[in-house]
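U., I forgot to send this yesterday:
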Amino acid sequence: MKRAGSIANNWASSDALKHALAQRGGRRAALEDAIRSAIRSNRLRPSDPLPSSRALARELALARGTVAEAYAQLTAEGYLTARPGGTTRVAAGGATADATGTTVATAAARLPFTLEVGVPDVSAFPRAAWSTAMRRALRTAPSPRLALGDPRGAGELRDALAGHLRRTRGVVVDAGQVVITCGFSHGLAILCRTLRGSGLDCLAMEDPCLDSHRTIATGAGLRVVPLEVDEQGATAEPPPGTRALLLTPAHQFPLGMTLAPGRRTALIGWANAHDGLIVEDDYDGEYRYDHQPVGALQGLAPDRVIYAGTVSKTLAPALRLGWLVVPPRLLEPTVATKGLLGAEPSAIEQLTMAELLQSGAYDRHVRRTRLRYRHRRDRLLELLSEHAPELTPRGIAAGLHVLLDLPSGVSEDGLVDGAAAAGLALNALGPFWHDSAGRPGGLTIGYAAAPDHAYEQSLAVLAEVLRPTTVRFRRCARPT
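Result:
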């Protein structure tokens, strides 16, 4: 009989795994991909124990922190489960996770040019301001702040965030309601498990939506159902029996519209009438260009809406720093679930972020990047108007991407593959639909990810990729 954990240990020491890590530079992303692949292919099965982070790091010649961060990310995504001081295991249902799901912002690491969605220009990270804030935080923070403290997160950051969110997003919040997370994916994993523990078994998500979010929800044991979206945003009539929704009201991902005022009111009415709950993913609410920012939906019903935010778009995804604003009745179970998942943002980074907010440096950085991204958006729209005027961009008023509708008969996958062959990373619309059969095709074009020196080149490659499509469109439209 094989001893407990031998399958996972054999996998961890396999030459194939070591070769895969060597091919990718042995970094955290490669390890995460390898574990996901092992779970999806049933090499690692539900409840299989994984080696400790120390043991796996020693086996693979990695830093222990790299392994611990990979485990934390996969726990947040629903592939793994962990208990403080206990064994990390493959989650129940982990082996049946959606193997066709597409994680955005992965090809950019392999291709010279990128217009992918989901990533800001990380070269714009405010290194000097962050360093200054960190030095001040370390100089002024009492020593107990470096020990494990409040499970909701550092009080300084929760206080600073509460003031910031009230001022900039219209969130109704007390610092006691703020729970600090390792980004939105971690926060969503916490919420899905909290909802499941409260007796809910179904979560409605906008159709389309980010596919990895569906994977997180199903990994937590929830049944995911589609919530239709039209030109006014999410419909106000969720499927019968649904009591929880995940929405992107400020800038629907990926279609780009803002939830219409009548829909906002109607969805809050639905939540009140059905004892429902809405999770508001305010993933890029700071970036609105042509009109005043739309306030958070949470402000209309603080007892019915959980507000979620992150610095992944404003600062950098690698900070793994986000937050939830939780209604008081759900605060205790949410904090308890966070403890069970085991991941915790760095106390030093929390204190640094608090200082960045309190000093005004964060607001200044957002204003600078908002101007930069607006110029990039305008440049993208100019290029599309010049080289592909027949194709309609949508969602241009806000955010870090536009959606480009494609004519019937044009393969979005063919365009993505053609772009990749030319060295450009793009995302197709298809994977974001719950079921893409019969759905219109499109490209989601991110104008933030490329550094300044590569942005114009990325646009030039895009023009070349779109040229055959526009030529074909013009021929088909030519009168006979």
